[in-house]
């Protein structure tokens, strides 16, 4: 996607979600977003199938481990939600308040308005010749999200739902209006082992960066901190 198309898309989305927008505009925007994400998912699925067809047995085992970890995480989340629902249905107002506070903390993390510390990983992408495009940073964010990342930052930029990426003609990558120069440091909070496995699947982020002329270093830690936050707006 060219920079001009990215700007046009942001303008259209901003108009669609303007407070004065009608219900029809909101529905149209939601449909457009759904179709867009569906197209990207289909494109990535087709390319993943091609990569898996030529993958080595140990690479396939790595992919299987990643999928199993993701399934276990989702099943655990489902059980936790069921327990929470039961407590809220049979409990008092105090239980509801406690759950609301927990949910507020989660939403603050997703919105990027608060620092976060926890287990996770740090991904450093070295790109001495500045050949790694912005699309690969976006792929890294998507892979980390799919692997269960709760919070992500790239350099001094907190990555949230409205964060965008664009190539810079003079070198570097524009992340939500801030131009970053290599090496790019991506920090993610979550299950570090699962995220590292996801980044290393055949045709994934690590392989793509190396193919573009860059290099990758991944380190997993039990206490990773993200201090970058998104300024709150009224």
Describe the structure.
The chain is α+β, with helices and mostly antiparallel strands. It has two domains: 1-54; 57-234, Alpha-Beta Plaits, CATH 3.30.70. Helix content is 54%, strand content 19%. It is built from seven helices and eight strands, in the order H-H-H-H-E-H-E-E-E-E-E-E-H-H-E. It has helices spanning 3-16, 23-53, 57-90, 93-111, 134-146, 192-199, 205-211, and strands at 116-126, 151-154, 157-159, 165-167, 173-175, 178-180, 184-189, 215-226. The strands form two sheets. It has a five-stranded antiparallel beta sheet with strand order 3-2-7-1-8. Strand 2 (151-154) and strand 3 (157-159) form a beta hairpin. Helix 3 (57-90) packs across helix 6 (192-199). It is flat.
CATH fold-type name of the largest domain: Alpha-Beta Plaits
Largest sheet: 5 strands, antiparallel
List the domain count as a whole number. Answer: 2
- Which architecture of the largest domain would the CATH scheme give at its second level? 2-Layer Sandwich
Question: What is the CATH level 1 assignment of the largest domain?
Answer: Alpha Beta
What does the radius of gyration come to? 19 Å
Number of DSSP-assigned strands? 8
Share of helix among residues? 40-55%
- CATH 4th-level superfamily of the largest domain: Protein of unknown function DUF881
> What oligomeric state do these chains adopt?
single chain
What's the end-to-end separation, in Å?
32 Å
What is the average per-residue confidence, as pLDDT, rounded to a whole number?
77
Q: Sketch the topology as an H/E string, one letter per element.
A: HHHHEHEEEEEEHHE
Strand content: 15-25%
- Poorly predicted parts: 5-35
Widest sheet, order of strands = 3-2-7-1-8
